[in-house]
From TrEMBL:
<dbReference type="InterPro" id="IPR050882">
    <property type="entry name" value="Prepilin_peptidase/N-MTase"/>
</dbReference>
<dbReference type="GO" id="GO:0005886">
    <property type="term" value="C:plasma membrane"/>
</dbReference>
<feature type="transmembrane region" description="Helical">
    <location>
        <begin position="78"/>
        <end position="99"/>
    </location>
</feature>
<feature type="transmembrane region" description="Helical">
    <location>
        <begin position="6"/>
        <end position="25"/>
    </location>
</feature>
<feature type="transmembrane region" description="Helical">
    <location>
        <begin position="105"/>
        <end position="121"/>
    </location>
</feature>
<keyword id="KW-1133">Transmembrane helix</keyword>
<comment type="similarity">
    <text>Belongs to the peptidase A24 family.</text>
</comment>
<dbReference type="Pfam" id="PF01478">
    <property type="entry name" value="Peptidase_A24"/>
</dbReference>
<dbReference type="GO" id="GO:0004190">
    <property type="term" value="F:aspartic-type endopeptidase activity"/>
</dbReference>
<keyword id="KW-0472">Membrane</keyword>
<dbReference type="InterPro" id="IPR000045">
    <property type="entry name" value="Prepilin_IV_endopep_pep"/>
</dbReference>
<feature type="transmembrane region" description="Helical">
    <location>
        <begin position="181"/>
        <end position="214"/>
    </location>
</feature>
<dbReference type="GO" id="GO:0006465">
    <property type="term" value="P:signal peptide processing"/>
</dbReference>
<keyword id="KW-1003">Cell membrane</keyword>
<feature type="transmembrane region" description="Helical">
    <location>
        <begin position="151"/>
        <end position="169"/>
    </location>
</feature>
<protein>
    <recommendedName>
        <fullName>Prepilin peptidase</fullName>
    </recommendedName>
</protein>
<dbReference type="InterPro" id="IPR010627">
    <property type="entry name" value="Prepilin_pept_A24_N"/>
</dbReference>
C-alpha cells in the first residue's frame, strides 16, 4: 500500500509538472492558463490528445512538434520527471501521512515554479509566492503545523531580511520578488528554520558562483537568479531542517 502511494504521487506529480510547464509558458506569453487548449509554443498548432500525454508524448514524438517539426524544449519532460520525483519523495518521506504529503506536494509545486521561471527569465511573480503563502496560512493555523508566533517571526525575518537589502541598495541587489519569496519561506518553514534556509541559500549560491568568478565567466555585477537558490534551500530545510538544527546543537553543546 505504501508503494502504491509513492507511485500515485509520482504520476500525480508528472501530470502537475505538465500543467506547470503550460502555466510557465502562458505566464510569459501573457495568456490565461484557464482559457484555450494546449498548443505548440513554436507554431501555435492546437495539440491532439496523442500529443498531450505528459512525458509519453515527448518521446513518442521524438522531441519534435508533429505539425511544424521544430524541436520541443527538453524543459518539458525534465520538469515533469522532476516534479514527479519530488512528489514521490514526499510520499516516501511522510510514509503514509497523506495530508502532509499533499501539503509538501503543494509547496514543491510552487517552489519548482519559482525555480524554473527565475532561472529562465530572472523574474518572480506574485502568483508564485503571495498566493500560495496566503493559501497555506489557513491549514497551517488550523492543523497546527506551525504556531502563530513561529509563522509571524518566520515571515518577518524572511521578508524583512530581503526588504532591508532592497532598501539599502535601492533595488540594485535584489528585486521585489525576493521579498515576497522570503515571505513564502517564512510561512513554509516558520522560526527558526527560516534561518537555516537562508544560510544554505547564501552558502550554496556562493559555492556555485565562485568557480564562474574564478574562471571569469561571470563578474560581481552579473545578475544571479537568487530565487533558485532560495527554493532549493527551502526544499532541503523543509524536510531535513530540524535534523540539521539538532545536529548543530549537538556539536556546540
Amino acid at each position: 500500500m505504501f508503494y502504491m502511494d509513492i507511485l500515485f504521487f509520482f504520476v500525480f506529480g508528472v501530470l502537475l509538472g505538465s500543467f506547470l510547464n503550460a502555466w510557465i509558458w502562458r505566464t510569459r506569453s501573457g495568456k490565461s492558463i484557464w482559457r484555450g487548449r494546449s498548443m505548440c509554443p513554436k507554431c501555435g498548432n492546437t495539440l491532439t490528445w496523442k500529443e498531450n500525454i505528459p512525458l509519453v508524448s515527448f518521446f513518442w514524438l521524438r522531441g519534435r512538434c508533429l505539425t511544424c517539426q521544430k524541436k520541443i524544449s527538453f524543459q518539458y519532460p525534465f520538469v515533469e520527471i522532476v516534479v514527479g520525483c519530488l512528489f514521490a519523495f514526499s510520499a516516501w518521506f511522510h510514509a503514509g501521512y497523506i495530508l502532509l504529503t499533499f501539503r509538501d506536494a503543494f509547496v514543491l509545486f510552487f517552489l519548482t515554479f519559482v525555480f524554473v521561471y527565475d532561472v529562465t527569465y530572472q523574474e518572480i511573480w506574485d502568483r508564485m509566492t503571495v498566493y500560495p503563502a496566503l493559501f497555506l496560512l489557513v491549514p497551517t493555523a488550523i492543523l497546527g503545523w506551525h504556531s502563530g508566533m513561529s509563522i509571524t517571526v518566520g515571515v518577518v525575518v524572511g521578508a524583512g531580511f530581503f526588504l532591508l537589502q532592497y532598501l539599502i541598495s535601492k533595488g540594485k541587489w535584489i528585486g521585489g520578488g525576493d521579498i515576497r519569496l522570503g515571505m513564502l519561506m517564512g510561512v513554509i518553514l516558520g522560526w527558526p528554520l527560516i534561518l537555516v534556509a537562508l544560510f544554505f541559500a547564501y552558502v550554496g549560491g556562493a559555492l556555485f558562483v565562485l568557480p564562474f568568478l574564478v574562471l571569469k565567466k561571470q563578474t560581481m555585477a552579473s545578475r544571479v537568479p537568487f530565487g533558485a537558490y532560495l527554493t532549493l534551500a527551502t526544499a532541503l530545510t523543509m524536510f531535513y531542517g530540524m535534523d540539521i538544527v539538532q545536529w548543530y546543537i549537538g556539536l556546540i553543546s
